């Protein structure tokens, strides 16, 4: 795929289409093997009278697409063959046949600076000024033309150096940009350059030139690299994946977990991505390959606690839901339990013999976590992961290092990490503002937070590694001028770019035309993306390259501990959080929803009763819900073509958590008696039943909405047993005999509503004010009659009432 100057390329195609101006190739065999100063040697001008059919609109106005499928050798060394062979395919992606198709190999000058590892690949073909001859793939007749949708293979071989014919003209080790250029003649048009594909070729040494007959000549012997200043190298090897657990389900001790899909089963099995990462590391660090333990000692496993939790749960059997939008709905048995158990055992074995650190839970967006500003959520994101890794892997992981998935921290995130007790953040070099590129720096954080250091990894190498694999991405910290659509390149080309980036620092100890590092020690920290998608062969190529640098003396192994022991400069550096990191972070609506649901989780957790006799504790019961919120803010899959899918998954996860909390809150409710509740007297109690369907006891308060004629006494907090009910006797006093409607509801002790309110119709046998008047009148009459009798008795007169 063409990466060089896309705007200029499209303009050239349009110009060829309109037959105003185009360049075509010089006939095959006429190309020089030394740098050319005349750009017209690679282009020609068609006749102005030539015309084309209406411009192609099927693939952005292009006619041919070229793919590099294999490069041999992937790295040139003193022991490799004296030639480079590139094989690939040319595909007609236009709307017409193309004839006169020819391809050739070109080379640009060696990469001089780290940013040229990217920018050199976007240069126009004129920059690739050392050229080989064109090789024809089709004839000039319509019967041999490449038809729409058809593909042609090609193979180009060119000597590294030669005194007798065309060659790449290499005279010293370095990292060289290469290009395969394809010319052709679209139907109704003229010959023109129709596509190109660029990649990097690392040259760690040159084999002897077999065309030199004099054994005493300088080219007659291999040319090794300069190993006088090896680069100290540290490697982070990530084991992470996007979230898979179904959301909105609380913790359990006896139920199978539910997954949204069964993709992990394939990834953990032979040939899968995660299995390949483990398999490649096992082989590369094995005692028969890594005999001196150089690679093992310089490597640190970076494990995702969310992945460990998921895989560990899979080993006990699991379900896969039919519809991810319905996590509690129909589900089928998962197929990856055996693969999960095997993979986890292999990871435990690796972890027992090398450095281990846990990354933030589910690659969650730490800027979003800092914005929510909840201590419990923060702890789940960056403190608990080490406990998870230690518990599942049976190791003691590093608790001083934190590697954010973005490779960068904003000011709030840096302060949050420092306050959490972590002392070092692993960041990209472009994520801090510093005058040079030291191994570690002290970050300028808020005055009331502990000091925080940053260990810096190479941005260009990380960028190149991010493009390796099935799903190429570009890190958030990559400078904007180095960003292009890596998905247009073949997997082979992207791997070559990564191998070239890994060699750059090691090969540039001070070559005459390169920008050399300082005279002090040189170092390189390699950090692929956390959710990295190479297959086993690609992962092995990366590990093999680093191991080869160790064996050749171009690099020396350096452990993570040794890296962190490097003292930082005296001047503090400021964090530089790029705009791309904001764009790649959790959407604002997701973050706001997380904050709202996290408050509800906290309220529920505070109300649950921690009973040692219970099967599960409140913390473990609500932990999956809080972890779901972190999963919703994951930055995994948000930097590539799957961002929209990731956004949808995040919003669905928050919705599922909301629905799950609604179910839990609805599981604690008040049961109202049917009909009318009749009080025996004005001070009779009300009898109600509170029901708790949760597997944990809960403390509740009773809220009452009653008319003024009824006074309800508070009964205080009440404890409801797990999956049980309790009768509540509620003292009430009624001053009216009318039927009254009273609403009862339960809430947590902080006032958060539980369940549905219950409406009770109450009637009292008390007569209220009328009864008081009648009683007073009867009392007065009684007193009057008694007084009358006494009056007659005192006077000695019989009472008329006694006369008979």
Automatic annotation (TrEMBL):
Residues 1-30 form the signal peptide. The chain crosses the membrane at residues 766-786. Residues 32-58 have a biased composition (Low complexity). It holds the Pfam family DUF6049. Keywords: Membrane, Signal, Transmembrane, Transmembrane helix. The keyword Signal applies. This is Glycoprotein.
